[in-house]
Structure formats: C-alpha cells, structure tokens
Amino acid sequence: MLGSDPGECKGAPRPLALTLQHHSPSNLFDLDRVTHGNLVDPGFCEYLAANIGVRGHFQRYRHGTVGKLLEIDFPVGEHIGGGLAFGLDGYLYLSIGDGGGGGYGDKEGNAQNLNSLLGKLLRLDVDSGNPYAIPVDNPFADGSGKGEVWVYGLRNPWRFSFDSSTGDLFIADVGENQSEELDFIPAGSNGGVNFGWNYQEGTRRFQGSHPPDLELIPPIWEYDHSLGCAITGGVVYRGKALPEFNGVYLAADYCSGRIWGLLRNPDGSWKSQELFKIDAFITSFSQDDDGEVYAVDFTGEVLKLVRR
Hints:
The chain has a single domain, classed as Neuraminidase (6 Propeller). The chain is mostly beta strands. The protein has no helices and 22 strands. Helices cover 0% and strands 37% of the residues.
C-alpha cells in the first residue's frame, strides 16, 4: 500500500515496476481512455500512470493528491509508447512513440528531431524540480536538444525494461511493415544513442539517407512479419524457480503468440530461440519481488512462467 504520510515513505532495496495491458471500462479501442503504463516508485510513496490517446497524460499520485508530470501531443495517436520504469540509478525513464500510425512513416521526422520528445526514451529526476528536473548527465542537457531525451530514433517502443541484476536496458520497438526489433543499451551508457527510425526499420533502410557522420545503432535482434506483427518487450529472468533461464531475456509477438528467449554470448553477440507459442495476445511482461516472470494478455489474463 502506498504511504499516505511522508514519514511512511521508506526506500526499497530495488525498483519495482509494473506495466499493465490496455484497458478501458467501455471500449478497449477508445484511445482517450487507455492506460498504457503504471509504476510504483522505489520508495513506495508515489504512483505514476501514463494515460494516452491523441494527447499523452503522464500523472503522479502522491500523498493523496494528483499532479501532472508531463503532457505530450501526438500527430495521430497510435504510436505512443507509454512505458515507465525506474532505472537502477533512481531516475524515471519514459518511452514515447513517434506519435504516428500505421503507414504514417513519421512524416514529421519526430524520432530524429532532438527538439521533439516524440520517438524517444526520456530520463527524468522526479525527486527534484516541479514537476521534475533534468539529470545533469543527460546527453542533451546542455541545450543541444530536449534535456529530457536519453536515446532517440524510436518508432513505437512497446515495453522496455532494465535487467534487475546488471542494469542493462532492453527496448522493444514495433516496426512499420517489415521488421520488429530489440534494442540494447549496456549499463553505464552515457545515452545519446540513435536507433535509426525513420532512416532505418530494424536493419533495413526505410527512407532517405542519414548524414555520414550520424551513427545509427542496429538492433541486437529482429524478426520479419512472417513470424508475427508487433513485438512486445519483456524482461530478463532473474528468478529461482527456473535456474536454467537465469539471464535469459524474454520477448513475445502480439499477433502470433510466439515467445522467444535471448542470451548474450561471451563475445557480446546474441543468440535467440523460439521457446513456445501460446494462444494469447501478449501486451506486457512483469516480474515479482522474487524475479519470477508474468505475461499479460489483452483480455487481462495474467500468465506465469512455470516449468511444465
């Protein structure tokens, strides 16, 4: 239960992040009433939510009061991201899509525009400022772009997570019409990474040519639409019930129900394997305090990863 008095707020040993499925009491497809992410802060004193439609409302609930954290307008309102998680550094990270829709192709070029928050992963200090402060070590805090931006070149980052053991960051980015991709940032990164959209869709050229001095970071893994239609990012397994899964990153495809495992090789490359296929539309993953993994179906059903 969240503390109702400042004196009740106590630090937690590690961040707890929960992201939930699309849900609306009246219409699952009414974007104005969709909750895309929920988060409890590491001190268990604050609840944050991303309620996103054509305008994104990031709100904070603290000590019985509701406050605005951030509001963002989207050109179309389909690619909105909406994930929230605290990093091991204590800062709040928010994923924001390019704001377009299927076939839109990010016409405004928002994902590559450092003066736009769209198509980015943001990094905020919500323990300072009103309603937040910019961490001084953010890559564009010097005014060369929006200070909130941590990484850019994203289309629709649909779930990102930190490895609770290492702090490594995984970002699943939904593709346009060819590729679904998984991006990776190792712990200790200084941010400022460009994952390529809309010059690239995964490792495929999408449109235009990027400046020769602009480095685009390719995904660590991608798959084409013969295997599904939209990636749902997962988490790194750190539980005890399945020790053989320790360190394996899990991801799913929303349409096909395929679930894959990825593991990093000693040389830094990645290997992947399809683990199983289920009759479910997976919208999110999460972990409990013991590191056990859960998946959420579009209908609201919660599935737990267990041994057969």
